[in-house]
Amino acid sequence: DVKVTQSSRYLVKRTGEKVFLECVQDMDHENMFWYRQDPGLGLRLIYFSYDVKMKEKGDIPEGYSVSREKKERFSLILESASTNQTSMYLCASQGDTGELFFGEGSRLTVL
Amino acid sequence: GESVGLHLPTLSVQEGDNSIINCAYSNSASDYFIWYKQESGKGPQFIIDIRSNMDKRQGQRVTVLLNKTVKHLSLQIAATQPGDSAVYFCAEEFGANSKLTFGKGITLSVRP
To answer: Which one of A43, A59, A88 would you mutate to disrupt binding with B, by most B Cβ within 10 Å of its Cβ?
Structure first.
């Protein structure tokens, strides 16, 4: 089975802190994605990557950056966390058929 | 713009009954559709998918129906069980390796 692992399930950070959310997949997928999920808004795409060192903006990239130094790892970075970035963050990798495999999510609270 | 939406925010069914969750999509060029299930505190899990060259696909206790004429997708769950209680999302994709567009989600609640 495909496994997508998000390193932190729950984080609490203060406004202005730098936050790293790590995601690792074990299926050698080329495509990886970061979403945020908020009540009433569904899943919104932040950034995605189709290859190592490649990144593309999604629908809501403001306030975020990403890093893809290795194929299996896709990191989401909040350079200076703000309270409106309190959310559930979901990482996914994409199989050959187009299906997305999701991690368990990282719930971030910014105080 | 294009959008994927669900008709109802919540659905309550009796245990043992069949459930039908509906989804409307607006991009007539979308060629791949997926249903995901998300249990509380977990990430979305794949349930079943269907390509636009099909109108029906069956899995274990689940069936997905695609009506391209009216751009409608539905998920049928047979003999609904308490473990089926979750939020269900439909998603659409246009073209290979394209981004999936997700609907807002619908909550399925199973009454004992």
So the answer is: A43
Per-residue pLDDT tens digits for B84-101? 999 999 999 887 667 788
If you count them, how many residues does chain B have?
A: 112
Residue B96 with chain A: CB contacts under 8 Å: 98
The tokens for A95 are: 């199989």
| Tokens linked to B105 | 């989600």
With CB atoms and an 8 Å threshold, state whether B97 touches A50: yes
Determine contact, residues B44/A102, Cβ cutoff 8 Å: yes
β-bridge partners, A109: A12
pLDDT digits (tens, 9 = 90+) for B59-86: 999 999 999 999 999 999 999 999 999 9
**DSSP summary character for residue B99:** P
At A82, is the secondary structure helix, strand, or coil?
coil
**Cα B1 to the chain's mean position, in Å?**
21
Letter for the amino acid at B5? G
Q: How far apart are CA A57 and CA B11, in angstroms?
A: 34
Q: How far is B48 from chain A (nearest CA, A)?
A: 10
